[in-house]
Amino acid sequence: MGWRITHPALAAHTPKVLPDPHRVNRDGIGVFVGDHGTATLGVIAATGPGVPVLGIAPRIAWLRACSHFNRTTGDDLDVTPAIVQAATYLRAGDVLVLETQRLGLFGLLPTETDLADFDHIQKATDAGIVVIE
User: What is the pTM of this model?
Assistant: First the structure.
């Protein structure tokens, strides 16, 4: 839900946040800093001159982010609409990374523990999209 899109390690991919009137990149809203989201994207795709790390997929064709932070409601787990939006940009063989979790009885759990999220993750995988949580 938060990324420093202009981070040098990501610059080679010109990442963008998919547009939505309600769900936005949370980096810089209030005191929130998008370090974790940026690091996650870096683990996947970091590359470029002067970048001291290399992501596991530095030659990906494109890199887009879709936020689950709803600035209208302040909900930072507005995940289902983000999955639906992201899946519309993907086709069979593409990868959707869900960088979120939910609090459960025994700690943090995958977002698929929410039934609506599970249903849309299943629709994405049925369409051949690889989903990583």
Answer: 0.90
Give CA–CA dist 123/114, Å, rounded: 14
Please tell me the number of Cα atoms within 13 Å of 9 on its side-chain side. 20
Q: How confident is the model at residue 48 (pLDDT cuts 50, 70, 90)?
A: confident
Q: What is the 3-state secondary structure (H, E, C) of the chain?
A: CCCCCCCCCCHHHCCEECCCCCECCCCCCCCCCCHHHHHHHHHHHCCCCCCCCCCCCCCCCCCEECCCCECCCCECCCHHHHHHHHHHCCCCCCEEECCCEEEECCEEEEHHHCHHHHHHHHHHHHCCCEEEC
Scan for tokens 């629709």, then name that residue.
123
pLDDT (0 to 100) of residue 46: 95
Query: pLDDT by residue (tens digit) across 49-101?
Result: 889 999 999 999 999 999 999 999 999 999 999 999 999 999 999 999 999 99
